[in-house]
Amino acid sequence: MKSAICERLGVEFPLFAFSHCRDVVAAVSRAGGFGVLGATRHTAESIQIELNWIDEHVGGKPYGLDVLIPENLATRGEKGLTARALAARIPQQHLDFVAQLLKRNNVPPPTDQVRDGAAPYDPDQALETLDAAFRHPIKLIANALGVPPPSMIELGKRHGVPVAALVGAKEHAIRQVNAGVDVLVVQGGEAGGHCGEVSTLVLVPEVLKAIKPLGDIPVLAAGGIMTGRQMAACMALGAAGVWTGSVWLATTESETSEIFREKMVAATSRDTVRSRGRTGKPSRQLRSSWTDAWEQPGSPSPLPMPYQSLISEGALRAIERSAAAGNTAARDLVTYFVGQGVGLIDSVKSARQVVEEFKLDFADALDDLQNLLQA
Fold first, then answer.
1. Structural domains of the chain, ranges and CATH numbers in brackets
2. How far from 294 is each of 57, 220, 274, 309, 330, CA to CA, in Å?
3. Please, which contacts does 156-164 make with residues 24 or more away whose CB atoms are closer than 8 Å?
4. DSSP code of 148?
5. What is the per-residue pLDDT across 178-201, written as a single tens digit (0 to 9) for each?
6. Is the pTM of this model over 0.85?
7. Which of 7, 95, 308, 365 gives 229 a disulfide partner, CB atoms 3.0 to 4.6 angstroms apart?
């Protein structure tokens, strides 16, 4: 496909695939899309292992890296915080709530509730990870939850790599462009993970109109996009391509468990919810007994980011282990980030097959539009 963003990044088909799984990233890029590795959980050391593997398996095709450097954290400005130091600040009420929830569902308490090392979403660790990643031929870096720090934008410019940022509102897009971001990922409320409330169909043209006076900034549409027809629709709106995430969770290569993939196939588009119960910020995920528990009367209000992650992630890993061992109550608790497009998932496929289906579906949509013009 001929477009400015395809030429700049060396990508054949502007289907961007965000995944925490290196296998998905490599498979999508090899198939002509653009894999983006989610590096939130990585350090400068561990990212080398992942990117070495991708370099060996991507066949020389381009790929990118996504980090999470929140602009607003409850711990903003505090330096050198560890996960254990933050865990000591968690109110006993919240610890008891999670412990009782697990006990009622016969889930053994987590043995890895708080991992050693830096606090979740530590900006310094994220920047160190990014710096280390530039030892590899990454072609794009992206950030979510706010304007990237100036040091991240400077890193991109120094290495000649475009910097992308996710936005969920028109005013956020304007701030990002003014800060020097090169690519906008305009993510509607249908999206899995952290998202706003405005739908993709409304948000994309709203952002395009708002940033037009500021320059020619490529926009990637995101949120609920699971098919090539949806991709064609977004590009008809003016997007340069699409940024996808949830569709890759139902692939054979993904990091999700078999149980979660089964729940995805069974789910409808109404089975997701925006909840603060996992990270402390509103994020769309599969509705479950876990998300319901945080909304019940008498439950404690979720803690702000990064504290909520410290009490949720260990518990959710314990839930996955218990569900895999046959605990049906634990299975009901299993959840993960996923968008409303989950209702379009009817089976588990390989990442390559998903890319090929996107291409065929996209071509069919263009043919239908062309036929309309000729009628």
1. 4-81+120-251 (3.20.20.70)
2. 41, 33, 12, 14, 16
3. 156/182, 159/134, 161/134, 162/8, 162/9, 164/64, 164/140, 164/220
4. P
5. 999 999 999 999 999 999 899 999
6. yes
7. 365
